[in-house]
Structures are given as C-alpha cells and as structure tokens.
Amino acid sequence: MNFHVLTLFPEMVMQGLATSIIGRAMDKEIISLEAVNIRDYTTNKHKKVDDYTYGGGAGMLMQAQPVYDAWNAIAADIDEKGRKGRKTRVIYVTPQGRTFQQSMAKELAKEEDLIFLCGHYEGVDERVLEEIVTDFISIGDYVLTGGELPAMVMIDAIARMVPGVLSNANSGETESFSNYLLEYPQYSRPGNWMGKKVPEVLLSGDHQKIEEWRLEQSLKKTKEIRPDLYEKWERENQAYFIRKA
Ligand code: ADE
C-alpha cells in the first residue's frame, strides 16, 4: 500500500512515521510513504502558498493552484506506475469531516494508494477541495494547528491494518474497537510487583475460565469508561445476555 501526503512540512511526516512498526513495514516494502511539499509547486517568485480570504475574516487561506499542481504531480506519478492516479482517494484532514473510526481504517487499508491533503492556516480554497477531495475526515472534536498530525494518526491506524505490517496476524482483530469493547487488563512478570499480585485466574491454566474473566473485565471497563460503546456491544450481542440470565 502506498501513502502520499501533500504537506508544507514533509520532514515532519517522514520523520514522524519512519520509526518502529511503520518504519519496519516501509523497510520491508509492505507500505511506502512519500511526502510532497506543496510549496515546491508555487508559481510565484516568493514561494507563497497562502493569501487573504475573499469577504474578509481573520487568517490566511491555502491557495488552490499549488495544491492542485502538487496533487496533479502525484496522480501522474501513480498513473505512470500503471495504477489509477486520478481515481485514487484523496483525504482532506479537517475538523469539518466525518470522525475517523477503526472501521474506516480497516476499509481504507484495502486501497492500493491513498493521498492525504494537510491544511494549514485557516484552511484551503474551497474550489480545489471540490476538484480533488473524495473524503473529508477529522480525528476528533478539537482543533490542531495543521493537518500533519491527523494525517499521521490516520496513516498509522490504516497501515497496521495492512496484512503483514503487524507481526501477529491476529493482533489487529482481537483488540479494542474491532468488537466495540475496550481491552481487558494484561499482566507480565513478576507475579508480585510492589505487593500487587496478578489475578489468580490467569495462573490457573484453565483457558475457558481465562476467556470468561477477560470478557467480564472488558465489559466492566467498557461500561464504566465508554458507555456508548457498551450499549452498541449490548445491542449486537443480545444472545450473550440471554445465555447469562
Ligand atoms: N486539522 C486541525 N484539526 C484537525 C482535526 N481535529 N482532525 C483533522 N484535521 C484537523
């Protein structure tokens, strides 16, 4: 899978993602990442990418032309490699988008290429958004200074859903959100740390009992911390409660 990022801060994106699991996946060529500097596509001699907004208002806006030309270069490059550059989904990361979810990460991981557009200043000229963007996605109800961090968050979440990126083929499936429940607590050695003991059941070797305990813990934690997720799970797992009753 190939990630392409349109940004004013390419080094931030490259450095931020080139470590640990994602970096290893890049080394193994399971995924690729390129960050294209929008500023390289300005046609004015001062290399300016922003201007005042029509109608007044505070702040500057990213102009359409350099964004469009940078996108065009990426699309042409994808085309040249025999894939479909002009049909590649373009995600504009913005607080005005749909909220990013695990289910979206899973869906997007099936794409061969993805292009991210990172905004800055007060946003991007609407006309270029209309022209190139296919998805408007937010990472939550708060405002950051630029789109790079949200793009990196999404790329990390999507990349780890690409087969081969995680060492344990299962670990993307059993964790939180794939079934609406938060994960149960986990323990490693020593069995007694500062007087705190590992729950007895985990030492019992009884796998069924352990599974039951883990589900119970997940349910308890989810009900307490994320009642919204708990309700969703309850609705979709009526059978569990009927069996329990
Ligand atoms: N840009 C600024 N804030 C953002 C957010 N919360 N999600 C996505 N993009 C953003």
UniProtKB/TrEMBL annotation:
<feature type="domain" description="tRNA methyltransferase TRMD/TRM10-type">
    <location>
        <begin position="1"/>
        <end position="232"/>
    </location>
</feature>
<keyword id="KW-0808">Transferase</keyword>
<keyword id="KW-0949">S-adenosyl-L-methionine</keyword>
<dbReference type="GO" id="GO:0002939">
    <property type="term" value="P:tRNA N1-guanine methylation"/>
</dbReference>
<dbReference type="InterPro" id="IPR016009">
    <property type="entry name" value="tRNA_MeTrfase_TRMD/TRM10"/>
</dbReference>
<dbReference type="InterPro" id="IPR023148">
    <property type="entry name" value="tRNA_m1G_MeTrfase_C_sf"/>
</dbReference>
<protein>
    <recommendedName>
        <fullName>tRNA (guanine-N(1)-)-methyltransferase</fullName>
        <ecNumber>2.1.1.228</ecNumber>
    </recommendedName>
</protein>
<dbReference type="GO" id="GO:0052906">
    <property type="term" value="F:tRNA (guanine(37)-N1)-methyltransferase activity"/>
</dbReference>
<feature type="binding site">
    <location>
        <position position="119"/>
    </location>
    <ligand>
        <name>S-adenosyl-L-methionine</name>
    </ligand>
</feature>
<comment type="subunit">
    <text>Homodimer.</text>
</comment>
<dbReference type="Pfam" id="PF01746">
    <property type="entry name" value="tRNA_m1G_MT"/>
</dbReference>
<keyword id="KW-0819">tRNA processing</keyword>
<dbReference type="InterPro" id="IPR002649">
    <property type="entry name" value="tRNA_m1G_MeTrfase_TrmD"/>
</dbReference>
<comment type="similarity">
    <text>Belongs to the RNA methyltransferase TrmD family.</text>
</comment>
<keyword id="KW-0963">Cytoplasm</keyword>
<dbReference type="GO" id="GO:0005829">
    <property type="term" value="C:cytosol"/>
</dbReference>
<keyword id="KW-0489">Methyltransferase</keyword>
<comment type="function">
    <text>Specifically methylates guanosine-37 in various tRNAs.</text>
</comment>
<feature type="binding site">
    <location>
        <begin position="139"/>
        <end position="144"/>
    </location>
    <ligand>
        <name>S-adenosyl-L-methionine</name>
    </ligand>
</feature>
<dbReference type="InterPro" id="IPR029026">
    <property type="entry name" value="tRNA_m1G_MTases_N"/>
</dbReference>
<dbReference type="InterPro" id="IPR029028">
    <property type="entry name" value="Alpha/beta_knot_MTases"/>
</dbReference>
